[in-house]
Amino acid sequence: MHKKKNELYELISDIKTKKEFEHDITTRYAAYDELLDKDAIAFLIVDELGRNVHSITKIAQLPADGDATVIGKVLSISEAKPFKRKNGTPGKVVNLDLCDETGSCKLVLWNDDTDLITNKDIVPGTTVKIINGYIKQGFAGLEINLGRWGLFEVIPADTTHQQDSTTSPKEITGILLKKEPTKAFFKDDGEFGFVTTITVKEHDKETRVTLWDRHVKDIQSFAIGDPITLKQVTTKDNNGTIEYHVNGTSTLQKHR
Predict the structure, then answer these.
(1) I need a surface site. Which of 74, 82, 131, 142 has the fewest CB within 10 A?
(2) What residues contact 229, with CB distance under 8 A and at least 6 apart?
(3) What are the residue ranges of helices labelled H in the chain?
(4) If we measure between CA atoms, which residue out of 122, 102, 8, 7 comes closest to residue 57?
């Protein structure tokens, strides 16, 4: 389970004073537009300083139940499988096979986390790092899940293949129905990225749209029920499933 910032500070107390630690947290909290809570930011600071309590764990040494940080090479990626939650809303899951020199395991990504696959060009052969993933017993053995406190990083390599095709940008206009929690991830250049998903109602149709980076900050000024127009939305055909992404030159606007 994740630790609170006061517990995390003990891991770096010989590097920073408590006042410096709190100042760093407050500065980043403002810089991230309050997208991450202060405990999560404290975890990131500790990880950057190399004092993450979750040091790298080899796959053969993964605990049957607990948290771990793992580096592995992607062997294969399943197609996204849709399912319905208990409340009837749609979800999706993607399974990846990971390996290191000691063994192999599953990496399971659920719902919005599956967008990290298509937007970071992950293919078989890509090396990834899962920071603070939680481990549990699955149908095919131990599996790593990227939960609320997990981070995802791609280890840079010469693998830049596309897994999906991109069609012409479109415009989405409707009412903002839902904003889902923000996730953070590491970009290839070591900087943090942000991703979230919103649901927009267009007439009688509900459309889920994934927002990236600065657009995640932009959506914070919108309230549920606000009329919204998304322009230059990227539309992707991922194995027959149409996905909508707001990134790059996309814009968010309130309309009357």
Answers:
(1) 82
(2) 171, 172, 173, 252, 253, 254, 255
(3) 5-9, 18-31, 38-48, 115-119, 214-218
(4) 102
H helix or E strand, kind and range, residue 4: none
**Cα(32)–Cα(68) distance, rounded to whole angstroms?**
25
Give the type of residue at 35. Answer: L
**pLDDT digit string (tens) for 7-28?**
888 889 999 999 999 999 999 8
* pLDDT given at position 162: 42
All structural domains of the chain, each given as residue ranges with its CATH number in brackets, are 5-48 (no CATH), 59-155 (2.40.50.140), 165-254 (2.40.50.140)
The first and second tokens of residue 61, run together, are 């040494």
pLDDT 10s digits, 170-212: 899 999 999 988 877 766 666 677 888 899 999 889 998 989 8
Is 176 in contact with 184 (CB distance < 8 Å)? Answer: no
Residues near 87 by beta carbon (within 8 Å), at least 6 away in sequence:
none
Separation CA 232–CA 2 (nearest Å): 38
Phi and psi at 38, nearest 5°, equal -70, -30
Place of tokens 């937007």: 119
238: its two tokens: 């991922």
